[in-house]
Amino acid sequence: MFGVYMSKQGEDGKLSKQAFLELLNEQLPSFKKGGGRDTGEEIFQGVDLNQDGSIDFKEFALMVAGYAAGSYETLQKLMKEMNKKK
């Protein structure tokens, strides 16, 4: 994900809203699943912690870490369920 971030960042080292939304569409399409809402915009607002209109690497890393933690918990639950069935 670091390489993806680096390839999309602007000269200021940050992701513009457009670059962030492109990254979501290309690399993390599951993030945008939602009932017809503009979830990309909602995610951007939530990740842009300092509300400066762009995403710096720290904000991006926090988003990825949060996603990984959530995925890990889901994976653990599935593994426990599978072990119960054995």
UniProtKB/TrEMBL annotation:
<keyword id="KW-0479">Metal-binding</keyword>
<feature type="domain" description="EF-hand">
    <location>
        <begin position="35"/>
        <end position="70"/>
    </location>
</feature>
<dbReference type="InterPro" id="IPR002048">
    <property type="entry name" value="EF_hand_dom"/>
</dbReference>
<keyword id="KW-0106">Calcium</keyword>
<dbReference type="InterPro" id="IPR018247">
    <property type="entry name" value="EF_Hand_1_Ca_BS"/>
</dbReference>
<protein>
    <recommendedName>
        <fullName>EF-hand domain-containing protein</fullName>
    </recommendedName>
</protein>
<dbReference type="InterPro" id="IPR011992">
    <property type="entry name" value="EF-hand-dom_pair"/>
</dbReference>
<dbReference type="GO" id="GO:0005509">
    <property type="term" value="F:calcium ion binding"/>
</dbReference>
